[in-house]
Amino acid sequence: MMTPTCGKHRLLRLVSPFVAVVLFQAFLAGLSLETLSSVRAYVGGEGLWSKGQKDAIHFISLYSQTGEEHFFDRFKAAIAIPLSDRNARYALEQRTPDLNAARDGFTGGGNHPDDIPGMIRLFRYFQDVPYIAAAIRHWKETDPFLDRLASLGDAIQQEFSSAAGIAGRAEVRKEQIDRIDRQSPPLQGLSRRAWEKARGPSSFC
Length: 205
What we know:
Blueprint: H1 4-66, H2 69-93, H3 99-108, H4 116-126, H5 130-141, H6 143-161, H7 170-183, H8 190-199
């Protein structure tokens, strides 16, 4: 005759695998929700990035035509948004990620503080997932254009500060700004496609 203790042990052996499966599924569901939330945060950050870039183009154009210093200040504030996001990416791409620098960068990019830890985790642990890797690769392609725009802004500001000023160069500078604007690859929409992909089945395959 089976003792009560043996019966309990046998029942435990039978039930344990099912409990483990349920707990594992709950873990996966929680991980999936957190990942979706982090991708959504990148979608919002992408909108801020794009607005910062467009505002930078707008205000440096006004500054190059008028020389009014407040337009240059607005340019610097606008371009600081995509540059700060880039600093965050640089910090996370290091062999030993600089989490404090990444946090400061995403904060400077206007991202909500509550979203930043998830954004950092998503980049660190899922950057090789195909749709996320594609978004990061496209993000990197914008770097040279940001550098050109920032350098051009500083050059125009120096010209206005010099004795000769920018007289006779306004049209040249306008053409340079327009060329950067035309050639800069748009970031808008890429993270949204990643969001759509993340919501679908087999997101991490």
